[in-house]
Design goal:
With 882 residues, the chain is an alpha+beta fold. The protein has 16 helices and 43 strands. Strand 36 and strand 37 form a beta hairpin.
C-alpha cells in the first residue's frame, strides 16, 4: 500500500511543509496518470486536500477526478489528532469535518479508522468509529510486544461493546515496506525481503498481509511495480497486489466475520506496548500553555457557541438555522481549532515556530467562537441591533444576558462583567476639539425576571470603553465603567438564556442572600459545606462539614529537575521545595458570595515563589485553587500535590465519553522495554481517587497530566520545562524520538499560571459520579454573562432542553449537520443501563435516534415534549429533534 504520513507541521511549520505537499501531490497525480501507481493514501486526514488546493487552486478538477475514482484515498479524519489530549466531542467534529472535506473535494472518505502514529489510543475509539460506520482501526503505539500481543489482528471493544477489527502495525509501524530496505536488485532476498516476510508471516492471522510502503513526508517510491514483479517471481506461494488501504480493510473485515472466534479481544485504552515501540507519554505534560488554551476553546465551542446557536434556532422555529451562515461559521471555528490538534502539535513536540503559530490559531478560534456566541444570543432573544441604534439611547434597557451551559436548572454564584455608561466618545476628525463629558456611575443593581434585586458582590472595577455595533451603522463608542461582579442566581433554565436588568442606584439596603454566606478570616474560609484552614507551611487543610471527612497538605509544591525533552519527562534528584522559607497569607475577598485567600510561599534554594489563591463560593462543595509563579529555570518539573490521607484503593480518570479506571501501581520497566513506562497518566477534566473511607477529586482547567501514588496523593503537572525537541541520551528512552532541534520557548521562562479545584467525597462517588459531574460543570462550565446595553425589550427567559436521568452526562447540543434539526447528545457513565429523558418542550415534533455521524437509526417516541430513552452501559446516545 503506497502512502505518505504527512505531519502538517513538526520540526518545520505548516507553510514550509505545505509547499512540499503541493510538489508531492503534483508528482503523485502524475504517477497515477501514467500508470506507474494504481493507488496512493494521502494519510488519514482531509486537511491535506485543503492545504494542497490553497497552493494549487487550479488543480481542483484534477484532484477531484483521482479522489472520485478512488485512486487517491483520504480521511476519515480532518487531522491526525492526538486522541488522548482532545475531548470526545472534538474527535467527533474531527471525523465530521474530515468526511465533509473529502466529499467537498469530490472523494469518498476512507472507511478505515486510520491512526498510525498517535501516542496511545483511548478506549472509546471503537465506539467513535462504529458511530461513523467504520469497522476497522489501524493502530501502532500503545500496544504490542507483550504475551498475546504479537499478532496483527484483534477484536477491539469499546466500553459500550462497540467493536472494531484492530489492525496493529509491526514494530516498524507505517514504514515497514519501504522498497529500498527490503529489495536490492532482481533477486530481492539480498535486500532484506526474507526478514520482512518472516516478520509478516509470524504476525499474520489472516491470509492477507499489509505492507505499508511509505514514511514521513515521503513521495511515492519509484520502482514499486518492478519490485512487485520480482517478488512474484521469487515467492510462488504469494500473490502481490499494489492496492489501497480500503481494499485491504474490506478483505480483513470479511475474513474476521468468518473467523471472529479466532481473534483475541482487546478492551480499554492502549497506552503501553513499550516492548514494541515508544509510547511517549511525557507529551501530556509538555507545553501546557497549549493544552490550557485548547481546553478553553473546546469549552467555548462545545458548551456555549453550539448550544446557543441551536437555542436560537429553537426560539424562532428553526428559521435561523435554515440560513447557512450559523452552521458554516461553527464549522469554520472548528476547523481553526482542529488545525492545532495533530499529535505533533497539541502534544507540544514541534519547533518553537510551530507552537507560536498555534497560539495565534487558538486566539483566532476564541474570537470566532465569541462572535458566534454574541450573534446567537441576539437571535435567541430577538434583539435587532439596527433597530436599537435607530431607536436611540433613551429607549435602551441595559441587561446582562445569562446563558446556562448545563442541561439542568442551576442556582449558585457566577461571575460577569457589567458595563455602566459614563459618557459619549466621538471618533473622527470632528472629535479633535470635543472633550468628552465623563460621569461616575452610581451603585449597581441587578434585577431578576421578577424585578427583585439579586445579591451582588463587586470584585473589581476598571474604566474602559464599549462599542454598540450593528450591521448598518458605525459603532457607537462610549466610555464605561466595567465592573467585575459575582451574582447569586436561582433556578436558571437549562441550556437557556435569561435577561437580568442592570440599573444604577444610590447605595441602599443590601439584597437578601439566597444561601448562607461565605466568611473569611486571616487564615481560613468557611461556607455551609466546607471549612478550610491555611497551615503554617502554606498548604490547605479542608473539612467537609456534613461527613466530617478531611484532607491535609493540599497544594503542597513539588519541584524537581527535569532532564527530558518534549517527548519524555526525565525527573532527576529530590524535591527542591520541601518546606518553604517564607509564607504570607492575606484575605483578598471577604464574602458574602466569594471568599478568597492569597498564600505566597518562597523557596530560596529553588529560586521559586508561588502565589496560590484559594477561593470558596457560598454554597459550593468544591474549593478553587489558582497558582502563579515566575519560572526562571530551563529544566524543571513543577507539580501541585493533593493528598487523600489514606492508602489508595482506586483511581478513576475522566476520559472521552466517560471514566477510565487505571491500575493502582505504576508499571515497572523490564528488560526489553524500549522506554521506561511513565508513572503519569492523562485525564480530561478531572481525576478521582479513593481509599477505604474517603475520596478526593482534582479538577483541572487544561492540565491533563497527573500521577496517583499508592499513598493516596494526586500530583498534577503545572510545568515541564525543556530546551530540546528530542534528546538522544535519556535513560528513560535512549535514542531520538524526533529530529534534534533546539526549542528555547519550551523552557517557558516567564509567568506560569494554573487553575484547579478540589472536592472531598465518599468512595462510592467514583461509580455514581453525578456529584462529581455537577462540580465539574460548576468549575469549568459556569453560567456565562453577556452584557447588552442597548436592548429594546427584556423578554421572558428562553428555556432549552433539560436532561433527566442519573448517570447521564451532557455532551453536546448543536445544530444538525443538515436542515433545521438540533442534535442532543449525552452518555451513560455507569456500568449498568439507565433510563433518561430529554424535556424539549413544544418546539419540536419528531425525535430520531442517530449514530454519531447523525445517520438516522430509528424513531424515538416523544409525548408532550418529553423524549424518553434507555442508555445501555457506557453508551453514547445521540438524538436528532426537529
Amino acid at each position: 500500500m503506497p502512502h505518505t504520513h504527512w505531519d502538517r507541521e513538526w520540526y518545520h511549520t505548516a507553510a514550509r511543509f505545505g509547499l512540499r505537499l503541493a510538489a508531492m501531490v503534483d508528482d503523485t497525480m502524475s504517477r497515477l496518470e501514467d500508470g506507474n501507481l494504481p493507488a496512493f493514501l494521502l494519510d488519514g486526514q482531509g486537511i491535506v486536500l485543503d492545504d494542497y488546493l490553497a497552493m494549487r487552486p487550479e488543480a481542483g478538477p484534477r484532484l477531484a477526478a483521482h479522489l472520485g475514482a478512488g485512486r487517491l484515498e483520504c480521511g476519515p479524519w480532518y487531522v491526525l489528532a492526538d486522541n488522548l489530549l482532545v475531548s470526545g466531542e472534538a474527535l467527533i467534529r474531527n471525523l465530521l469535518e474530515g468526511r465533509r472535506t473529502v466529499r467537498r473535494h469530490g472523494g469518498r472518505p476512507m472507511k478505515v479508522g486510520y491512526a498510525p502514529d498517535t501516542f496511545g489510543h483511548p478506549g472509546i475509539l471503537p465506539t467513535l468509529f462504529a458511530g461513523f460506520g467504520i469497522r476497522t482501526a489501524v493502530t501502532w503505539r500503545g500496544f504490542g510486544g507483550e504475551n498475546s500481543q504479537e499478532k496483527d489482528l484483534y477484536r477491539w471493544l469499546g466500553p459500550d461493546g462497540s467493536e472494531s477489527v484492530m489492525i496493529h502495525l509491526p514494530p516498524q509501524g507505517y514504514e515497514s515496506g519501504r522498497v529500498g530496505e527490503w529489495m536490492s536488485g532482481a533477486s530481492g532476498r539480498a535486500g532484506g525481503w526474507a526478514a520482512l516476510r518472516a516478520l509478516l508471516e509470524g504476525r499474520a492471522r489472516a491470509p492477507h498481509w499489509l505492507i505499508l510502503n511509505g514514511a514521513d513526508h515521503h513521495a511515492p517510491q519509484t520502482g514499486l511495480r518492478a519490485a512487485v514483479r520480482a517478488l512474484s517471481r521469487i515467492e510462488r506461494d504469494c500473490r502481490f497486489v499494489i492496492g489501497s488501504l480500503g481494499d485491504y480493510s474490506k478483505a480483513v473485515e470479511a475474513w474476521a466475520r468468518r473467523h471472529a472466534d479466532e481473534l483475541p479481544v482487546v478492551v480499554g485504552e492502549l497506552r503501553r506496548g513499550q516492548r514494541a515501540q515508544w509510547v511517549l507519554q511525557g507529551t501530556h505534560g509538555s507545553r501546557l500553555e497549549l493544552k490550557q488554551a485548547n481546553a478553553g476553546c473546546q469549552r467555548l465551542l462545545e458548551r456555549v457557541a453550539e448550544p446557543l446557536a441551536a437555542l436560537a434556532g429553537m426560539v424562532d422555529g428553526g428559521r435561523w438555522m435554515v440560513k447557512k451562515a450559523p452552521r458554516d461559521d461553527l464549522h469554520a471555528a472548528w476547523r481553526t481549532l482542529l488545525e492545532n490538534h495533530p499529535h505533533d502539535s497539541i502534544c507540544g513536540t514541534s519547533s518553537d515556530a510551530v507552537h507560536r503559530e498555534m497560539i495565534t490559531r487558538f486566539n483566532r478560534c476564541g474570537v470566532m467562537g465569541d462572535e458566534i456566541v454574541q450573534r446567537a444570543a441576539d437571535a435567541a432573544i430577538g434583539h435587532d441591533p439596527d433597530a436599537a441604534r435607530a431607536a436611540g439611547r433613551e429607549t435602551w434597557k441595559p441587561a446582562l444576558l445569562v446563558f446556562n451551559p448545563a442541561p439542568r436548572p442551576r442556582s449558585g454564584i457566577f461571575e460577569a462583567d457589567v458595563a455602566l455608561f459614563a459618557g459619549d466618545i466621538s471618533v473622527g476628525p470632528g472629535s479633535a476639539g470635543r472633550k468628552p463629558r465623563i460621569r461616575r456611575p452610581r451603585s449597581l443593581v441587578v434585577r431578576g425576571a421578577d424585578g427583585a434585586a439579586l445579591a451582588v458582590q463587586e470584585l473589581s472595577r476598571e474604566d474602559g470603553y464599549d462599542r454598540i455595533e450593528s450591521p448598518h451603522y458605525y459603532p457607537d463608542c462610549d466610555a464605561v465603567e466595567w465592573r467585575r461582579v459575582a451574582i447569586a442566581v436561582d433556578d436558571l433554565p437549562p441550556l437557556g438564556l435569561t435577561a437580568l436588568r442592570v440599573e444604577e442606584s444610590v447605595a441602599g439596603r443590601r439584597s437578601k442572600l439566597p444561601l448562607r454566606p461565605v466568611t473569611a478570616t486571616d487564615f481560613g474560609l468557611e461556607n455551609e459545606a466546607l471549612q478550610l484552614r491555611v497551615e503554617s507551611d502554606g498548604t490547605i487543610a479542608l473539612l467537609d462539614r456534613a461527613s466530617e471527612r478531611s484532607a491535609h497538605g493540599l497544594g503542597a509544591l513539588e519541584c524537581v529537575r527535569d532532564a527530558g525533552d518534549s517527548y519524555t519527562s526525565a525527573p532527576r534528584g529530590a524535591n527542591l521545595t520541601p518546606a518553604p522559607d517564607a509564607v504570607a497569607v492575606r484575605v483578598v475577598r471577604e464574602g458574602p458570595l466569594v471568599g478568597q485567600l492569597e498564600v505566597v510561599r518562597r523557596w530560596d534554594d529553588a529560586d521559586i515563589e508561588v502565589t496560590m489563591r484559594v477561593r470558596l463560593d457560598a454554597g459550593a462543595r468544591h474549593l478553587v485553587v489558582t497558582t502563579d509563579f515566575w519560572n526562571v529555570h530551563p529544566d524543571r518539573r513543577v507539580r501541585l500535590a493533593f493528598p487523600l490521607g489514606e492508602p489508595l484503593r482506586r483511581v478513576v480518570a475522566d476520559g472521552a465519553f466517560g471514566p477510565v479506571e487505571r491500575p493502582l501501581r505504576p508499571v515497572r520497566r523490564r528488560p526489553g522495554d524500549t522506554e521506561a513506562p511513565d508513572p503519569c497518566a492523562p485525564m480530561q477534566r478531572y481525576v478521582s481517587v479513593a481509599g477505604a473511607s474517603g475520596g478526593l477529586t482534582v479538577f483541572t482547567d487544561g492540565l491533563p497530566q497527573y500521577e496517583a501514588r499508592t499513598d493516596g496523593t494526586v500530583l498534577v503537572t503545572l510545568l515541564r520545562s525543556f530546551t530540546q525537541l528530542s534528546r538522544r541520551d535519556l535513560r528513560e528512552r535512549p535514542g531520538h524520538a524526533g529530529w534534534p532541534t533546539f526549542t528555547p520557548d519550551g523552557a517557558h521562562i516567564g509567568l506560569v499560571r494554573s487553575r484547579l479545584a478540589v472536592m472531598l467525597h465518599d468512595p462510592e462517588s467514583l461509580d455514581a459520579r453525578d456529584a462529581l459531574e455537577a462540580a465539574a460543570d460548576a468549575f469549568l462550565a459556569p453560567p456565562i454573562g453577556l452584557m447588552r446595553r442597548a436592548l429594546l425589550a427584556l423578554g421572558p427567559a428562553s428555556r432549552g432542553p433539560e436532561l433527566k436521568g442519573k448517570g447521564l452526562v451532557f455532551s453536546a447540543m448543536k445544530p444538525a449537520e443538515a436542515g433545521k434539526g438540533v442534535v442532543l447528545r449525552c452518555y451513560n457513565d455507569r456500568r449498568e443501563a439507565v433510563r433518561g429523558a430529554w424535556h424539549v418542550g413544544t418546539a419540536f415534533r419528531t425525535a430520531t435516534r442517530c449514530r454519531l455521524d447523525e445517520t438516522p437509526i430509528g424513531k424515538v417516541s416523544m409525548g408532550r415534549g418529553v423524549i424518553a430513552f434507555e442508555a445501555a452501559a457506557r453508551e453514547v446516545v445521540t438524538i436528532l429533534v426537529r
